[in-house]
Design a protein that fits this description.
The protein has about 250 residues and is an alpha+beta fold. About 30% of the residues lie in helices and about 30% in strands. The strands form two sheets. Strands 1, 2, 4, 5, 8 and 9 form a six-stranded antiparallel β-sheet that branches. The longest helix has 21 residues, at about 5-25. The radius of gyration is 46 Å and the shape is elongated.
Length: about 250
Amino acid sequence: MRLLPTCFWAIHLTSISTLVSAASSWGFGDATVSAQSKGAGVSGGFKEKLIEGKPLSKAVELTPSDTLKIILTTYEDKKPKRPHQTFLLVKDGTTGVETSFPLSLKESGKAKVELSHKDMPSQLLRSSNPLSASIVIGSFGFSKPYKSRAFDLIIKGDPGSQIVPAEKPLRYGQLPEINHIFKGDPKSPPTIISIAFAAIVIAALPVLFVSFDTSDGGDFLYVLYNLDFIPDAACRSGRGDRYLSQRE
């Protein structure tokens, strides 16, 4: 008996969400697009009104001295509102290369974006085909996002300037195998060489003792005798008192 009400409310809430999402959607209005060079004045350059869902019949040309400007107001369910995202998507339909330019947004839904040649990727600047410019609006919630082509954009290059080619992007992938050569473990010399060196050292010991002249008491005994005076010398220097006390 408890399962039926639960299913009923679940189906009811799903239906409400579906109806809300189908009824509300994002869009824009009061939109204009212009391409003007600095100092052209109000009447100079290109300026047209953008209509939601209806792209311009005439392509917009952007020269190196022009600035492309788009001004619009975003709407949710026909009411001005600030969405989470609004940007201009520029795409080359032949190569598939695309880039996006976010619009600055206000709480009232007013949005604006400006761009010029320096903001465009070099791949798009070299394109000889008209570029597709679309407006994308979206946010959280059940409202349907908006995405539609607004106009075509033709990039006019300067014949006297050279476009710098784009650098090859950094891509992470498998690199060639690296063969490490490590230093070998230390090894002992051959046994014959070790025995030979030991024999030379042992044979040198008698020569060392014989080298002391043992006549008249011998220097060797003189050295041993002087070693016995080390504690007395330390005591006189003020550092051997403890040693002498222990000796007594």
